[in-house]
Amino acid sequence: MTKALSKTKSSFYRRLYVAHLIAQGVASVPALIEATGMPRRTAQDTITSLAELDIECVFEKSEGERHNIGHYTIKHWGAVDPHWVADNAERLRQALGYR
């Protein structure tokens, strides 16, 4: 039996995994929900909380669109090594129980 993740570790892993997905082009709330199965509010809150890890994530609005149509982009990873996250993305996904 695998030990359950602590709230702190699951939050940290979720932020890393969401940043990885955004960097890979899964860059909207609906796309994140589809890729992971997480609730909309969790996806939104996780994107917002990336700043707490000094991961700079910005929303880029699509040209000519009237509403908030666009995508997120990771501008800077702060102290996080994006190569480590990419290399361990599958382990993070499994630990979080995502699709």
Q: Could you write a compact summary of the structure shown?
A:
This protein is an alpha+beta fold and 99 residues long.
Commentary on this structure:
This protein is α+β, with helices and mostly antiparallel strands and 99 residues long. The protein has a two-stranded antiparallel sheet with strand order 1-2. Helix 1 packs across helix 3. The two termini are 20 Å apart. The relative contact order is 0.21. Strand 1 and strand 2 form a beta hairpin. It is built from 5 helices and 2 strands; from the N terminus they run αααββαα. Helix content is 49%, strand content 13%.
Helix % is 40-55%
Rg over alpha carbons:
14 Å
- Give the neighbour order of strands across the main sheet: 1-2
| Helix-strand string | HHHEEHH
Number of helices: 5
The helix-and-strand class reads alpha+beta
| Secondary structure: number of strands | 2
**In terms of per-residue confidence, which ranges show pLDDT below 50 for 5 or more consecutive residues?**
none
Taken from the alpha-carbon principal axes, the silhouette is globular
> Biggest sheet: strands, sense, closure?
2 strands, antiparallel
Summed over residues and divided by their number, the pLDDT gives a mean of: 94
Beta fraction:
5-15%
Q: Note the gap between the termini.
A: 20 Å
